[in-house]
Amino acid sequence: MSLMDRIKAKAKADKKRIVLPEGAEERTVKAAAILLKEGICDVILLGDEEKIAAYGEDLTGATILNPAKADCLQEYADTLYELRKAKGMTPEKALATMKDETFFGTMMMKKNAADGMVSGAIHSTADTLRPALQIIKTQPGVTTASSCFVMEIPNKAYGQDGVMIFADCAVNIEPDASSWPPIAIASAKTARDIAEIAEPKVAMLSFSTKGSGKGDMVDKVAKATARVKELAPELNRRRRAAGGRALVEKVGQLKSPGSAVAGHANAPHLPLAGGGQHRLQARAAPGGRRGHRPGHAGPGPSGQRPVPRLLGGRHRLPVRADRRAGPAEVRNSRQKNRTSGGGGAEKNLRPLFPPDFSEKKMRGEKHMKILVINAGSSSIKYQLIDMDDESVIAKGQAERIGIEGSNVKQSSAKGEIVFNAPLKNHAEAMEYIVKALTDKEKGVISDMKQIDAVGHRVLHGGASFTESQVVNPKVMEAIYDNIILGPLHNPANIQGIEACQKMMPDTPNVAVFDTAFHQTMPPHAYMYAVPYDYYTRLKVRKYGFHGTSHRFVSKRAAEMLGSADGKGLRLVICHLGNGSSLSAVVDGKCVDTSMGITPLEGMVMGTRSGDLDPATLQYIMKRDGIDIEEMTNILNKKSGLLGISGISSDMRDLTAAMEEGNERATLAIKMMTYRLKKYIAGYAAAMGGVDAIVFTGGIGENVGHIRKAAVEGLEFMGVKLDEAKNDVTRSDGFIEAADSKVKILVVKTNEELAIARDTLELCGKKA
Predict the structure, then answer these.
(1) CATH number of residue 691's parent domain
(2) How do residues 104-120 score in pLDDT, each as one tens digit?
(3) Which of the residues 47, 121, 155, 503 has an alpha carbon 20 to 30 A from that of 757?
(4) Verdict on whether the full-model pTM lies above 0.70
């Protein structure tokens, strides 16, 4: 029995509801008739009833539905609006969008009205995947949506019993070294789960045989292969190979004697492969409940779209030769670069710092300018700071990148600039940011060469970094490696860095990690009590976040307390905003923090649950029949203050509601401050006492009643608040009573300035 026959038999034994959104297309109608006749699945055809009937096929048993006339149209539109309103979706646009058959069919899967969807006969790849990524999203742990096709060879000369998996064939045209491994791992899973290949042998294909060829593609495949080995050690029989060596046994054994893959590959991973555009979307794919993924996807972040290397190319190895070196020295540096794997194209070589940077710093030259970049998944926030007096020259934001209605807005002393333009990616957004900064009328600089360095907020550095780093290939590799730990942020941070490297090739970049400050925690503080193997193999541990803010605030608090370096001080830093975290700081170093492997752990936050019994998830999911993706979304976006109050995640709204006697708003605030008080007291106990409690962040700096509630009841620790000072203090100041044994401070955080200072410090050192 062929694989297709076996798949058909399984389908008949467990019939699913398959929606065909291209229901008015002739081939689709004919296919539906065959499916119904053979009893393979229950068929739902979307489209005009008369057009479908006009083909004259026997569609007995099929459900035919016109989305524009469907009773559930408004319900589906309302759901789409709720899912996408943060991305600019309006109720009117949601209703119009939901009349599209592909969006409607995808929503049917979301609503459990269908188990899978097949599309692509007349829709492009992008139009087929877009609704899935927007409505169903990817599975948790999935960063790169990809495609594959299954091939059966009649004479069974290749693959396992003639069956092979080829990926990626249409979605990722030129994957980079970071996205290849997830695709390869997913290909192996597809081979096992769908193609019934018991032992997948993954071949990472390039034109090189055991290093016979050189170039970017070969280097990329080699790096990807090594990463697959690290991420999926159970796939212990894979090698990078040329196509002939991977598929033809005689060739494979001649070129790679002893290889387990050579001549036996059954899951080739094809770079730059074009292919068909027919797509299968199955329930739970991406991120649904039943069935297998449509164009499968590899491990990575929850709800995250593919992470393209927007600018192409590889990272350049900087030349760190003395800038005064003559031609011979430069040539030697370039030759070393070639032999060390950095390539050989001289146009790709650039100094780590501009020739005059260190000299400018050492001379104390005025008006050194640092550009600070905070890149999100669909936005880039930026500030240009004059480091002479640390004043903000200009600040702005590129919004809705990759989404309709994108724009760039900038404000400065010269006025506001607005560019309404389609921003397809971060590279295009950076182009408009450059236009804004250099605008003839309202710009603040005449040329981007006036920017001395760029500092980037990078969410996750894992355990790799305890301080900020000048960006080089090694640092970039680490940021890529930590995508799995920072799936929603690291990809955007990477795109921001690469965009700046493209636009300003001679300007140094610095990565300032949110996690770095917390990497001084001892193991007993950052470890979780799960099998140790999860730590060594999967890097499961507490990392913490808001580190740039915690570091800035702890240093400023120490200065206010008369200590230049924080020595001898035990501080509890309370960063309170929509996202909230605390840290325990001893002698200027973090010894514990409330956020964990993700920002979900710890405090009751605006929309995040914070600490809870893990078994709660299993109970809710089982009782309500929801999947892990939906549960994760609930915990991150529908819980916390919003979930309890049912009103808002904004403390201003909740405060107003509490003052009006709203019980749920009152409960939400009490839950937050109760958790806050427990953390403060707990960290004081862990440190053997506390010298100062420090409040910062949007709520910590501005909402006096939260600060008051947080320290009420801590009098036994010597904590006593001056309510009059507390009522009026909004920035750097002391709010404890005269007889308080513990200082209570309000410190205004400035993460952008912290990033700029780090950038200046690092780039001011001799290369």
Answers:
(1) 3.30.420.40
(2) 999 999 999 999 999 98
(3) 503
(4) no
